[in-house]
Amino acid sequence: MTAGPEPMSEVARSALNRELAALRTERANVAATLGDADEPGDRADQADELNRATEAERLDARIEEIEGRLREASAAGPPSTGTVGVGSTVRVRFGDGSESTVRIGELADADDPDLVTAASPLGRALLGHAAGDSVAYATPLGRTTAVILSVGSPDGGS
Q1: CA Rg value for the chain
Q2: DSSP H helical ranges for the chain
Q3: Where is the Transcription elongation factor GreA/GreB N-terminal domain (predicted)?
Q4: Single pTM value for the model
Q5: Which architecture, in CATH terms, is 89-152?
């Protein structure tokens, strides 16, 4: 990834907003079960209360992380068409001569076969490179190369 804020596709933004809504609902449910401090209960009750409080803290941390990422993506603007970044559409020629157009995203999406996550070996290799650059990356069958033919915007334009 680059040093600055990274743009985010609408698909990724939508997925994070759905996760955020689910986490807020879960957090509200956990908060409703946190007991009254005036009723100490037995040790099992105290341990259960501690577990719920720890779960609330975990949910709060994830909510804060997602909100921060959404703010960062809003400030980043659209991805560059000069170099590969999150949100870029990239035309590549692989070492075996085949060509493919992939989109670089943050979150995996089983319904999008053209999506390559920025954390994947190919995604990491492509980030920061421009058209004409050759990159090497690891595959289950060993190291291979790809040449970047073009870098475009999320709508597929160059």
Answers
A1: 21
A2: 10-33, 43-76, 121-126
A3: 7-73
A4: 0.56
A5: Roll (3.10)
Task: Report phi then psi at 147, rounded to 5.
Answer: -110, 130
Yes or no: say if 79 and 126 are a contact pair by the CB < 8 Å rule.
Answer: no
pLDDT in tens, 74-104: 765 666 678 888 888 899 999 899 999 998 8
Amino acid at 99: E
**The token pair that represents 15 in the structure block:** 């997925």
**Residue 110 CA from chain centroid, whole number:** 14
Token pair listed for 59: 């949910």
Kindly state the helix (H) or strand (E) to which residue 100 belongs, with its residue range.
strand 99-105
Reference 92, options 124, 119, 126; nearest CA is: 126
Q: What are phi and psi of 60, to 5 degrees?
A: -60, -40
Residue in this structure with the two tokens 């190369």, named with its chain if needed: 145
